[in-house]
Design a protein that fits this description.
Layout (H helix, E strand, L loop, with lengths): L2 E6 L17 E2 L2 E2 H10 L6 E6 L4 H4 L7 E4 L4 H11 L7 E6 L7 H10 L5 E7 L4 E5 L2 E6 L5 E3 L3 E4 H11 L7 H7 L4 E5 L10 H14 L1 E16 L3 E3 L2 E3 L3 E4 L6 H14 L4 H4 L13 H13 L3 E10 L9 H12 L6 E6 L5 H4 L3 E13 L3
Parallel strand pairs: 1-4, 1-6, 4-5, 7-12, 17-18
Antiparallel strand pairs: 2-3, 6-11, 7-10, 7-11, 8-9, 13-16, 13-19, 14-15, 17-19
Helix pairs in contact: 5-6, 8-10
Bound molecules: cytidine-5'-triphosphate and magnesium ion.
Length: 382
């Protein structure tokens, strides 16, 4: 059995707000029509794809590189389907699937079920039960409740044996219909119902785009972690910087920059999440320009690299390991400063401190160690 898919994409998308027709709009980094095309080009039962377009949209579809046949549609969906069917005249597949380009989330399962149903029926479409209570009204006045158990909401792709659908469209004459199953029914064809999917919704209104973006935000983003570790020596001084806060003490941290061990660990953690090496590669200690540099700059650079990679920081957790200074009195200030620097809400920044029970170099008060772990949201395809 050969099978062709016709994607109708010649509409104007008025309800979605006009402007660029909805099938050409970007959805989380990829055009709606390209997403829909992928669903069909990647399905093993589909041999051929026809895309019905409006010639006015050339600027939008010209950039799409896909092995499909492009044909011009008409002023109504029905006219566009007819144009798609006409384009299949020479190819004459056994089956045809007709799908709204504005349904980019159709699953393999939904497509397969329709194709499979065509083995036993001349027409098939995915439907969903109606879950809202329904009322019929006239002139805006409620007049009667409708028994929803009898009703189904129709989705696409709607599948047909080609000959049967061509006959049905011939019988329709010059008239229009909302969808192809109703053309088939009007022609007396037996229409088989398969199970649709709530996710296979049609992008119709601006709210549908918001919903789609929220959905993709969930599926196309992954969470990565990065960790960092750093140590600096303690020596007599009159101040030190720790987690971006100046502490006036009679000892300080020694290093090439301001030696803010907390911010260095955090910078390395962020570089880790971004896959960008470590702080020494970006700011070599041999480079005189970083002498005494404020570690804010290192941190900001790491944040920028993460952003460039399409990432967004989700949280940061820093552990300071030292006998001195006592972190407790400064903890809130450090937390606020780090949150401000990396652009996170307070609740997503945590500063912890621990001693090592007087053991080791931190126990002997020779230095301060810091660990940091961050989580970042990143695009899945890099
Ligand atoms: N369609 C088409 N040709 C038309 C009208 C619609 O190919 N003359 C397509 C649309 O591009 C869409 C599908 O049919 O993929 C479903 O139609 P609908 O959701 O109504 O899309 P639009 O007509 O573009 O939107 P609107 O009605 O809000 O203007
Ligand atoms: Mg329309």
């Amino acid at each position: 059995m050969s099978c062709a898919a016709i994607l109708v994409a010649a509409g104007r998308g008025e309800r979605a707000g006009g402007g660029v027709p909805k099938q050409y709009r970007d959805l989380a980094g990829k055009m709606v029509l390209e997403r829909t095309l992928e669903r069909f080009l990647g399905h093993p039962a589909v041999d051929d794809v026809v895309v019905v377009i409006n010639p006015d949209d050339a600027a939008f579809f010209a950039g799409i590189d896909a092995p499909v046949l492009w044909v011009n549609g008409g002023a109504t969906r029905t006219a566009s389907v007819r144009a798609g069917l006409a384009a299949l005249e020479s190819r004459r597949p056994d089956q045809v699937l007709i799908h709204d380009a504005a349904r980019p989330f159709v699953s393999d399962r939904v497509i397969s079920d329709v194709v499979d149903a065509l083995a036993d029926a001349p027409a098939a479409l995915p439907v969903l039960p109606v879950t809202d209570a329904l009322l019929a009204h006239a002139d805006g006045n409620m007049c009667e409740s409708v028994d929803r158990d009898r009703l189904r909401a129709a989705q696409t792709p709607q599948g047909f044996r080609l000959d049967a659908l061509l006959n049905a469209y011939e019988k329709l004459g010059e008239a229009s219909a909302h969808d192809d199953a109703s053309v088939a029914l009007a022609a007396g064809l037996e229409v088989h119902l398969t199970l649709g999917e709530a996710g296979n919704f049609k992008l119709t209104t601006p709210e549908d785009f918001e919903r789609a973006e929220a959905l993709l935000g969930k599926t196309d983003m992954i969470y990565v972690t990065g960790q960092g570790f750093d140590v600096h020596r303690l020596e007599p001084s009159d101040h030190m910087y720790l987690c971006g806060v100046r502490l006036d003490q009679d000892f300080g941290l020694v290093g090439h920059s301001d030696a803010d061990v907390g911010l260095h660990a955090l910078t390395d953690a962020i570089l880790g999440a971004a896959g960008e090496g470590d702080i020494g590669q970006h700011f070599p200690p041999t480079d005189p320009q970083w002498r005494g540099a404020s570690s804010d700059r290192f941190l900001m650079h790491a944040c920028q690299l993460l952003k460039n990679a399409g990432g967004a920081l989700v949280n940061a957790d820093i552990t300071l390991i030292c006998e001195r200074p006592k972190v407790g009195p400064y903890r809130d200030e450090m937390r606020a400063r780090v949150a401000e620097l990396v652009g996170l809400p307070l609740a997503r920044v945590n500063i912890k401190a621990t001693t090592t029970e007087k053991l080791g170099f931190t126990g002997r008060r020779e230095g301060v160690a810091a660990q940091a772990i961050v989580t970042a949201r990143m695009p899945e395809d890099v």
